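Structural biology now treats backbone shape like a language. To illustrate, our science desk offers a sequence and the tokens encoding its fold:
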Amino acid sequence: MAQKPGLRPTPDRVRETLFNWLGQDLSNWKCVDAFSGTGALGFEAASRGATSVIMNEQDAALVQQLQRLQQKLDARMVKVQRGDALSCLKTVAGQDLILLDPPFGQTELFEPALKAATAALNDDGFIYLEAPEAWAEERLLEMGLALHRYLKAGAVHAHLLKKQ
């Protein structure tokens, strides 16, 4: 995993629960990890058979680390790119899984990221949202999303969402 002081990786327990919810086999899935950070979620999706994983990260040093990991793992299905998460989400469509783990201190990113992810998702796809607080189901419904699964682990609120 990529590392940087202050970076908050998804806890192992949460990552394990997420992929248990999704199933062990993600064959032929198209995924976007919009706020890649350590890359743990995107690389996990790739290891479970996703055929396309876009790992988007804004921090140049983390992008370099992610690219080295991608080469070391020979993860050809992974594309590491540097850029703004919202711009990334606006350039993709038909995704099976969109992973959203914005910096907890930048709460202004959450709603725009969810809206952009909803537009990029296929009808049967999933959005994973990791947040510092639980999102009310009414608020999600206003964006056309339904809460499929939820877990609180420490300071992390993990939401698995689907289109209504």
The CA atoms of residues 34 and 88 lie 7 Å apart.
